[in-house]
């Protein structure tokens, strides 16, 4: 898909334009800072496209930084999957990959500096007591009894924390700011805590770990970030971001700017919830094609361009909102409509015998791979006496609106001949087992010569030359628009989100499909070859039309 060339405009780019014009910055430097505690999802794609997109358009820099201060929840496999997803989306980070954990020595030094300035203290209140002292949104907090411990003593206590001489949870290091602040985050926030945990990057070197708010701003500043873009829930934390940088000896002071996070209907976006789906076996894994993860969308058949286009279409604002799933689906549909080769597949077959076509004969028809793009070439379609058509494409009786095959009437087989349904066999339950037809040999690529009109076109495959494959029909993972609002979101899972068709009949050319290659199965939808299964498996990416729009409008 030709991505629209013009640059997006939004309030963040307006700020950047002004900063470059005024000479505040010569070059932009952004970063994408995931915590490696799960796979990236489509919400992260919004942030990736924003941060890397700015670097691209302004010829700036963008770092990939793992915000890895929670050793217990993080995993090196997530570190790997995140790099792969960012690259797959088409972005390249500048320089080496960054890790907040690379800065643990410096962060420790800045914590010591705060203590020396009388701006941090070791606090032994229990978590319950600390909560009580913190106050509420309407009541100020109370000062901790440890708040006025002399500097020398705090330095010694913090050193004991570092050496592992206190138990986990026994004490923490807190910034000394303002227990009466209307911003809860400024009520002497914790900046270091004790965790006897092995870290995927630093091993067992540390048993004290810095908190997110302390780490993030310093990491940004150490990397020379100019604009630190984050989601709206960090609005209050900006006060702490600025306080830390104002009170330590560091020259760089990035500007934090918040934007609204992406919420998408019929799915959940929090990594905690996605993890629950994986751990409890509701899906096959983080890359299950029903998951809103980048890896899941990829396996489903989404292209990087379609996801970038989606991020462009939703834009960047400060308004919280819920984006319709149809909007994401429209992006991949537009892409595949233009770029996916056409193929034929019969998912629910009935056998057709063309009685006036010679037994054993194979006619090699040629079909274009794309109706509007000759450059995509052609392929051969074997036409034989026995074929399959879609069960729902035949009716014994039907009114004029049914533009497919009806007993005693004609229909065109796509890329082939006009056939007429003559009679059929059925089993004891009344299911049609075989349909007997005749074909008009003079209708290949042209209308019947006697001027009779044949309106309908249906798809087909040769029964003797087709290949079989598993086709996975995917639907939305949840049956309600906002599963996160439910008491238990797993109760709103769509029981029909996956229907497996084991022996779908495919035209032979599809045996050559490459992993992740997308096709339009004519009249059925868009499908892509699964990137995991060694056998031939196709995953439904999206239908040809937005069937949900109808349901929702009804
Ligand atoms: P989650 O709540 O899904 O676990 P998170 O914010 O904890 O997400 P991080 O790994 O910390 O996940 O996020 C990395 C970056 O991606 C952050 O800058 C964050 O603001 C951004 N981000 C995460 N979720 C979204 C979203 N839904 N929309 C836009 N940006 C997001
Ligand atoms: Mg986070």
TrEMBL record:
Taxonomic classification: Bacteria, Pseudomonadati, Pseudomonadota, Gammaproteobacteria, Alteromonadales
Keyword ATP-binding: yes
Any matching Pfam family: tRNA-synt_1c
Cell membrane recorded as keyword: no
Species for this entry: Pseudoalteromonas amylolytica
Name by which UniProt lists this protein: Glutamine--tRNA ligase
The protein's Enzyme Commission number: 6.1.1.18
CDD domains: GlnRS_core
Cross-referenced InterPro entries: aa-tRNA-synth_I_CS, Gln-tRNA-synth, Gln/Glu-tRNA_Ligase, Gln_tRNA_ligase_bac, Glu/Gln-tRNA-synth, Glu/Gln-tRNA-synth_Ib_cat-dom, Glu/Gln-tRNA-synth_Ib_codon-bd, Glu_tRNA_lig_a-bdl
MF GO annotations: ATP binding; glutamine-tRNA ligase activity
Gene Ontology terms: cellular component: cytosol
Subcellular location: Cytoplasm
Catalytic activity, reaction form: tRNA(Gln) + L-glutamine + ATP = L-glutaminyl-tRNA(Gln) + AMP + diphosphate
Domain Glutamyl/glutaminyl-tRNA synthetase class Ib anti-codon binding as annotated: residue spans: 340-440
Domain tRNA synthetases class I (E and Q) anti-codon binding: 457-530
Record-listed L-glutamine binding positions: 67, 212
Motif ('KMSKS' region): 268-272
Keywords, in A-Z order: Aminoacyl-tRNA synthetase, ATP-binding, Cytoplasm, Ligase, Nucleotide-binding, Protein biosynthesis
PANTHER family registered for this protein in UniProt: GLUTAMATE--TRNA LIGASE, GLUTAMINE-TRNA LIGASE
């Amino acid at each position: 898909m030709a991505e629209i060339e013009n640059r997006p405009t939004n309030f963040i780019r307006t700020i950047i334009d002004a900063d470059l014009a005024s000479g505040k910055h010569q070059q932009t430097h952004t970063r994408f800072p995931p915590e490696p505690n799960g796979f990236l999802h489509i919400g992260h794609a919004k942030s990736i496209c924003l941060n890397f997109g700015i670097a691209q358009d302004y010829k700036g820099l963008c770092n990939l930084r793992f915000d890895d201060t929670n050793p217990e929840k993080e995993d090196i496999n997530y570190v790997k999957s995140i790099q792969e997803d960012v690259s797959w989306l088409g972005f390249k980070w500048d320089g080496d990959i960054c890790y907040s954990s690379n800065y643990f020595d410096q962060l420790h030094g800045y914590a010591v500096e705060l203590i020396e300035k009388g701006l941090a203290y070791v606090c032994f209140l229990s978590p319950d007591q600390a909560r009580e002292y913190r106050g509420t949104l309407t009541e100020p907090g109370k000062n901790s009894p440890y708040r006025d411990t002399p500097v020398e003593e705090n330095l010694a206590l913090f050193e004991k924390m570092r050496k592992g001489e206190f138990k986990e949870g026994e004490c923490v290091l807190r910034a000394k700011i303002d227990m009466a602040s209307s911003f809860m985050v400024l009520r002497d926030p914790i900046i270091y805590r004790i965790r006897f945990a092995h870290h995927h990057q630093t091993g067992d070197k540390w048993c004290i770990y810095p908190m997110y708010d302390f780490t993030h701003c310093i990491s940004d500043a150490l990397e020379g970030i100019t604009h630190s873009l984050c989601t709206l829930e960090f609005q209050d934390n900006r006060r702490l971001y600025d306080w830390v940088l104002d009170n330590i000896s560091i020259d760089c002071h990035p500007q934090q700017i918040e934007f609204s996070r992406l919420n998408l209907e019929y799915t959940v976006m929090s990594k905690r919830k996605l993890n629950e789906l994986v751990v409890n076996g509701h899906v096959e894994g983080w890359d299950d094609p029903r998951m809103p993860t980048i890896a899941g969308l990829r396996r489903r058949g989404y292209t990087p361009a379609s996801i970038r286009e989606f991020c462009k279409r939703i834009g960047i604002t400060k308004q919280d909102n819920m984006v319709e799933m149809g909007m994401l689906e429209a992006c991949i549909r537009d892409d595949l409509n233009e770029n996916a080769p056409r193929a034929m597949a019969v998912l629910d077959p009935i056998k057709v015998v063309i009685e006036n076509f010679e037994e054993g004969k194979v006619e090699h028809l040629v079909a274009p791979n794309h109706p509007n793009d000759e450059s995509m070439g052609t392929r051969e379609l074997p036409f034989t006496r026995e074929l399959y058509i879609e069960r729902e494409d035949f009716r014994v009786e039907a009114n004029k609106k049914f533009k497919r095959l009806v007993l005693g009437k004609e229909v065109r087989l796509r890329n082939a001949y006009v056939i007429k349904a003559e009679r059929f066999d059925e089993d004891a339950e009344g299911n049609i087992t075989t349909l007997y037809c005749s074909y008009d040999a003079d209708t290949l690529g042209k209308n019947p010569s006697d001027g009779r009109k044949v309106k309908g076109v249906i798809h087909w495959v040769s029964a003797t030359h087709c290949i079989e494959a598993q086709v996975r029909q995917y639907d939305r993972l949840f049956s309600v628009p906002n599963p996160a609002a439910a008491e238990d979101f797993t109760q709103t899972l769509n029981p029909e989100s996956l229907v497996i068709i084991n022996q779908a009949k495919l035209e032979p050319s599809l045996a050559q499909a490459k992993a992740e290659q997308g096709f339009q199965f004519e009249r059925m939808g868009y499908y892509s070859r699964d990137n995991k299964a060694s056998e031939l498996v196709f995953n439904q990416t999206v239908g040809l039309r937005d069937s949900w729009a109808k349901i929702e409008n009804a």
